[in-house]
Specification:
Number of domains: 1
CATH architecture: Orthogonal Bundle
Largest sheet: 2 strands, antiparallel
Helix content: 40-55%
Number of strands: 4
Shape: globular
Length: about 100
């Protein structure tokens, strides 16, 4: 009986953890990111952009100057056409970063 309770508890914990991950992954975002001024933390709000990619964007910008086109992001390691297309609607070259999670 005790073993069954532990197994049930573990199973329930995994289900809750998995459901929490789905909720976080499906959060909606709103606004825009200025890729020429955004911090690595701000860039991580974009879907599919993690710590290393965000740091790569900032490092590329620091080494090469401001991005002249949103498509220039494909020069950053970890960003290909598919990822760029997924985030392109949130990207700007000028203006204030307004991106936030709803």
């Amino acid at each position: 009986m005790f073993k069954r309770s532990i197994v049930y508890f573990c199973f329930l914990s995994l289900v809750m953890l998995f459901c929490g991950s789905i909720t976080m992954a499906s959060q909606e975002i709103e606004g825009y990111i200025n890729i020429n001024t955004a911090t690595a933390e701000e860039l991580q709000m974009l879907p599919g952009i993690g710590v290393s990619t965000a740091q790569g964007i900032v490092a590329f910008r620091n080494a090469n100057g401001p991005f002249k086109s949103v498509d220039d992001l494909m020069k950053v390691k970890g960003i290909g056409e598919k990822k760029l297309n997924a985030i392109k609607a949130y990207l700007r070259l000028e203006g204030k970063t307004t991106l936030h999670i709803k």
